[in-house]
Write a sequence for this structure.
């Protein structure tokens, strides 16, 4: 069913399908000039202390004579992420219950769909994808419609994978608590800093933009363009993160599903992602 083997840092050998879809059309319009974009502009961020000091200090021209002019930091053009490894493996990390299958992931038009369902006899099938390409500094953005349901943990995130860390979670929602979305940074030693936002109407079953912006010395997390928190620490070289999306079933955090989890018209739950983009940042 699947081809290329993928070795995980926990020693689990998995197989993957590599597949992609063609370029996707712009999905957003720039709020200031009406230009079409594949992603909204990255959320604004507070300036670093280094830049504030630099702006306040006047340097006589004689002191910089012959010195190279510093290259200003800049943002690149958003790139649509649509080439994936589809995971085919039983997943036991965190005491999770699901088996990932390639046929639980597909595209409906431009929307990536991941399905989770109860196959009976204590067997749960779900989907997980990891981008074939790695990406560096910049904004990682998912416009996602997350499912609810007891014992589910849908997530959109990114990680090095080999080695696993660092990891940055753009959004995780515990299925029985759909009014809270969690965003978490994991450094190379798995030291974690978590932020959350609440929504009285719930975050599930409607589209929201979950993102983080990765800079050399910090990470900004945002929901619908509003920054929820900042983690300050100097990360490894700015290349190597893979985009990841999945639905975990059961496990230490959400607990086990029950009959209410699958009480839907077709007995399944879906994670739908209409836009996945990387906007490069050049320090």
């Amino acid at each position: 069913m699947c081809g290329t083997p993928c070795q995980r840092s926990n020693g689990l050998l998995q197989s993957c399908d590599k597949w992609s879809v063609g370029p996707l059309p712009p999905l957003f319009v720039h709020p200031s000039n009406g230009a079409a974009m594949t992603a909204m502009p990255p959320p604004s961020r507070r300036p670093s202390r280094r830049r504030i000091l630099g702006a306040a200090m006047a340097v006589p021209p004689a002191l910089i004579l012959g010195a190279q002019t510093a290259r200003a930091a800049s943002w690149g053009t958003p790139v649509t992420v649509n080439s994936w490894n589809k995971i085919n493996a039983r997943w036991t990390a965190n005491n999770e219950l699901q088996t990932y299958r390639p046929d639980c992931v597909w595209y409906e038009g431009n929307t990536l769909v991941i399905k989770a369902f109860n196959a009976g006899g204590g067997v749960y099938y779900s989907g997980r994808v990891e981008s074939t390409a790695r990406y560096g500094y910049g904004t990682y953005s998912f416009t996602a419609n997350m499912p609810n349901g007891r014992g589910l943990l849908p997530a959109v995130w990114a990680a090095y994978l080999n080695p696993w860390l660092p990891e940055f979670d753009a959004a995780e929602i515990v299925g029985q608590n759909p009014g809270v979305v969690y965003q978490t940074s994991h450094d190379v030693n798995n030291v974690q800093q978590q932020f959350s936002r609440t929504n009285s109407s719930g975050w599930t079953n409607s589209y929201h933009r979950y993102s983080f912006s990765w800079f050399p010395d910090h990470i900004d997390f945002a929901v619908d363009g509003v920054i929820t928190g900042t983690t300050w620490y100097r990360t490894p070289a700015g290349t190597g993160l893979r985009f990841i999306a999945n639905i975990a079933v059961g496990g230490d955090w959400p607990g086990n599903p029950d009959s209410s989890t699958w009480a839907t018209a077709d007995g399944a739950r879906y994670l739908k992602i209409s836009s996945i983009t990387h906007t490069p940042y050049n320090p």
Q: What stands out?
A: The chain has one domain: 4-26+76-282. The first strand starts at residue 4 and ends at 7. The two ends are 42 Å apart (CA to CA). The mean pLDDT is 82.
